[in-house]
Design goal:
heterodimer, A: 802 residues, 20 helices, 24 strands, flat, B: 134 residues, alpha+beta, OB fold (Dihydrolipoamide Acetyltransferase, E2P), elongated
């Protein structure tokens, strides 16, 4: 039975589905054609042409899918589940991009899209390497586009399509509502993008990170392509700039994530060792290793096997990360992981396929890939670079191990939980590793390839070393970092910065063309220095000193309650909560930071911060910190808790009470004294809206507060056609409602009903304030790292051209 | 012995070291039963918040103490003292993980893990919203 549903735009979805199928099919074709071209003696060019054509069709189809989904989002076609679930009419237009990649399907599409873009550059630039590289990339595209298929094969759902109709989506299909022919007219708006994600980070971070993910496929494809083509060493040179590109862009993506976490989310830091963060850090570490080992091979013809392994491993670990974050396996271990979309099986197959393929190819071709035969000289640059690469691998291994605990549980059926103190656990390994890495990057550039004269190296390094020791001493004395392992990193990080800058000035004479490595290394040193100082010396200034001591097991009394207009001393500041205002879904809390001016003996406002709570009926209320940036430190302020319960209009007043009194008597309330002065027959009938036949009498009451301020009120008693009622007198300022409810002519007593306002609840917030010193070192290091790596890419491209 | 062998041995030793520290540092997902039997040992307990029983949070007295009742997956219920503020939107939480140890009759939690709202898609709620919108 085919029911026609009103107002649906089915055409677009059908076109979208068709494009997905085209993209899928033509990636298979491209991969096969490119592969055949490698194995054929004749007609190579023709097969390459077919492969290229097929890939162009695939690429066009992918662009078409992107355009179609964008069109659906732009026009709010809520008959499509993805549009309904991730966008809304109420949402500002600039977040359309963000809703595009908020969901799993959209982010897979983004990834696929970047692969196409990078592939087109490969086809354009890498003439000789087009066929081998593209046969591998196309094969990857087969798997990626299958994630978007959303078709059933023998009851198994392959992929998940962004063009699934709302009424056919598994979560919705059984609702009677969607069976109505006019269901679409009844949907007022979509669910919209999570307001938490409605910020510019969500617009720039995912595309950068996914471009980083995508960039790892190229070195991987070069490594496999080298084996496919039987050119076991020649792939290294063209792969070099691509690998550095990956290092740069994936690094940028990770750092953006850190900045987002620091600026807008309330993690209280830039790195939390969450599995999702680790999942992109590990491939980056391996990619950095890969880039360096490629340099060694390019220069010395050594460590080819390591080059293969690292280029392959960085891509495989991207796949592994994808599996970790999207299969739902992290479950309780991560707060950010996606929930399962029923694709975990597919992701395992995907990962398994490429692991087996790569390992099998390496084993098959092992004779062509010599393991290092000759010993490198202890004083050679390549030896220490290689040590550095091994250290990176160990770092990646350790992070992967702990991140994989949920996977281990799944396989072995155990119930191991991640370490309770994640930070301490990772730091125990990663801090010494950081010491070694920063030490290595400070002196390795001063070594010559093959063999260097130690005496000369020491002479060259002496200045930087002495300077670094002095600065380290100054730092230790000034900011008192008194832990030996922190001091070690403090020195090596400073040494790395100074030695590299020294190398750039004295050896390279400031030539920017050649300075990529030194800048990147100095940048890395700065990142480590910033991370160290801001972590070791971050101070919670909102310590709760009055709170009940829970013992030393629970030392974290880091939140403090502030009543409105109260001022508390925190660190060097006097901090005061001034009130809140609501704009849309956001409530802004004004926190004033003041300093005491000794000469004028007055408090002076230094600055105000506006931490926010987003009231988010769908996702829950989310607290967003506000940070004041200084050149040497940041002051981070965050609302940990605020009473968001709106005051119920009916709850404003207490239960009324009635007293029977005579003229001259007094009633006491919590705040006032009410004296019954007299009865008044002259009442203003118009303002009381009385009818001509009504009988009315007023009670003149004097209302006095504790300080003696007094005013008069006159509730009125009315009789209309044997009905009795009252016109009450409302005193807003005093918080009183007075009514005249009964007259007893015999005893000359009268009933006065008093309704008191509840005590206004003292408004408060619970906040946390942290000072992060030296965080700007980290961000400037990040900028240097990105600039340096970009220069390195440029240098490699130029060298390859020459 | 060649230098490369020494390096190899060091790398293997470090890898084993990494495995051992992961095992040593790791905690265990456990029930209250296990936690009661081993007081003072840190566990991750997965469970559901009992929303019928009151949440106690009196910031005027102590802004860093939040108490509630949690029923673990075996059905045992305990009072939890969490050293921190009441998480935003705690009322809406479904399954949560608490990290901490037993101390007397109560479980002293140093951490609460709730699902990051950005990735939290609840089909039930979606349906409800759809109906409300209609």
């Amino acid at each position: 039975m085919n029911t026609a549903f009103l107002g649906e735009h089915l055409w677009y979805g059908q076109a979208g589905h068709l494009l997905i199928i085209i993209a899928f099919t033509f990636s298979i074709l491209a991969s096969i054609a490119y592969f055949i071209s490698l194995k054929q003696k004749e007609n190579q060019a023709a097969w390459v042409k077919i492969g290229r054509l097929a890939f162009f069709v695939h690429g066009l189809a992918v662009f078409g899918i992107v355009a179609t989904l964008f069109h659906l989002l732009y026009h709010h076609y809520f008959e499509y589940y993805y549009v309904f679930a991730h966008s809304s009419k109420a949402m500002p237009k600039q977040y359309l991009l963000a809703s595009f990649w908020e969901g799993q399907e959209g982010s897979f599409l983004l990834w696929t899209f970047w692969h196409v873009v990078l592939s087109l550059i490969v086809i354009w630039r890498e003439k000789e390497w087009e066929a081998p590289v593209m046969s591998v990339v196309s094969l990857v595209q087969v798997f990626l586009s299958s994630m978007l298929l959303g078709v059933y094969i023998f009851n198994y759902k392959l992929g998940s399509s962004p063009f699934t109709l709302l009424r056919l989506h598994p979560d919705m299909a059984n609702l009677p509502f969607v069976q109505m022919t006019d269901y679409l007219q009844k949907i007022k708006d979509g669910r919209g993008l999570n307001p938490l994600l409605q910020n510019y980070w969500m617009v720039i971070h995912p595309p950068t990170l996914f471009l980083g993910f995508a960039s790892t496929v190229i070195p991987f494809a070069f490594a496999l392509g080298g084996m496919l083509k039987g050119k076991f060493t020649e792939w290294v040179k063209p792969a070099l700039p691509w690998t550095f590109f990956g290092v740069m862009i994936l690094g940028t993506g990770i750092l953006m994530g850190a900045a987002w976490a620091y600026e807008a989310l309330s993690f209280g830091g830039f790195w939390a060792w969450d599995p999702v963060e680790n999942a992109s850090l590990v491939p980056w570490l391996l990619l950095v290793g890969a880039a360096h080992v490629l340099i060694i091979f390019n220069r010395k013809g050594q460590s080819l096997m390591t080059a293969y392994i690292l280029c392959i491993a960085s891509f495989l670990l991207i796949l592994y990360s994808t599996f970790l974050t999207r299969s739902g396996i992290l479950g309780d271990a991560s707060v950010h992981a996606f929930t399962d979309l029923g694709m975990s099986g597919q992701l395992v197959v995907y990962l398994g396929f490429f692991v087996i393929l790569a390992v099998a190819m390496l084993i098959r071709n092992r004779k062509h890939i010599p393991l290092t035969a000759e010993e490198e000289n202890f004083s050679s640059r390549e030896f220490w670079m290689f040590i550095g690469i091994l250290v990176l691998v160990i770092s990646a291994f350790q992070i992967t191990l702990t991140t994989s605990i949920p996977v281990f549980n799944k396989i072995a059926g155990t119930k191991i939980a991640p370490p309770a103190d994640l930070k301490a656990h990772y730091n125990a390994w990663q801090l010494p590793i950081a010491v070694i890495i920063t030490l290595l990057i400070s002196f390795t550039l001063f070594l010559k390839w093959v063999k260097s004269d130690w005496k000369e190296v020491v002479k060259k390094l002496a200045l930087a070393c002495i300077l670094s020791l002095l600065i380290t001493g100054l730092f230790i004395w000034k900011i008192k970092i008194n832990k030996p392992h922190y001091d070690a990193l403090l020195f090596t990080a400073i040494f790395a910065i100074i030695a590299n800058l020294d190398y750039m000035i004295r050896v390279l004479k400031g030539k920017s063309k050649l300075s990529g490595a030194t800048l990147a290394h100095a940048g890395f040193g700065l990142i480590m220095l910033g991370a160290l100082i801001s972590n070791a010396k971050s101070t919670v200034i909102s310590k709760n000193l009055s709170g009940i001591d829970l013992g030393k097991d629970l030392p974290g009394n880091e939140n403090i309650m502030m009543l409105k207009n109260d001022t508390l001393m925190m660190g060097d500041y006097f901090v005061s909560y001034q009130g809140k205002k609501q704009e849309g879904v956001n409530i802004y809390y004004q926190i004033d930071y003041m300093t005491y001016n000794w000469s004028s003996k007055k408090m002076e406002k230094a600055f105000s911060l506006f931490p926010t709570i987003q009231t988010n009926p769908r996702m829950g209320n989310v607290s967003e910190p506000s940070t004041r940036h200084f050149w040497d430190k940041d002051i981070y302020t965050h609302i940990s808790y605020a009473d968001l319960e709106p005051v119920n209009p009916g709850d404003e007043y207490k239960k009324p009470f009635t007293q029977t009194i005579a003229v001259g008597d007094t009633i006491g309330t919590a705040t006032h004294i009410i004296i019954f002065k007299r009865l008044e027959r002259m009442v203003n009938r118009d303002s009381l809206q009385l009818k001509p036949g009504d009988m009315a009498i007023g009670a003149v009451l004097q209302v006095k507060d504790i300080e003696g301020h007094s005013r008069e009120a006159m509730p009125v008693f009315v009789i209309r056609d044997n009905m009795m009622f009252t016109r009450e007198s409302v005193l807003e300022e005093e918080g009183l409602k007075l009514a005249f409810t009964r007259v007893d002519p015999e005893t000359k007593k009268f009933d006065i009903e008093v309704t008191e306002k509840r005590d206004p609840k003292k408004e408060f917030v619970i906040m946390k304030a942290i000072i992060f010193p030296g965080i700007n070192l980290l961000w400037s290091g990040a900028v240097l790292l990105i600039i340096g790596t970009t220069l390195a890419i440029r240098k490699r491209i130029r060298k390859n051209k020459a | 012995m060649k230098r490369i062998h020494i390096i190899g041995i060091v790398v293997i030793a470090l890898a084993i070291g990494a495995i051992l520290t992961t095992v040593a540092d790791s905690s265990t997902y456990a029930s209250f039963k296990t936690s009661v039997e081993n007081p003072g040992k840190e566990y991750h307990v997965v469970g559901r918040v009992n929303k019928e029983k009151p949440f106690e949070y009196n910031p005027e007295v102590n802004a860093n103490l939040f108490s509630f009742y949690l029923k673990d997956n075996d059905g045992q219920e305990r009072k939890i003292n969490f050293n921190g503020t009441k998480p935003n939107d705690f009322e809406r939480s479904e399954q949560i993980v608490i990290i901490g140890k037993m101390k007397g009759e109560t479980f002293e939690a140093s951490g609460i893990l709730m699902k990051c709202p950005s990735k939290y898609a609840n089909p039930e709620e979606q349906r409800k919203e759809l109906k409300q919108g209609a």
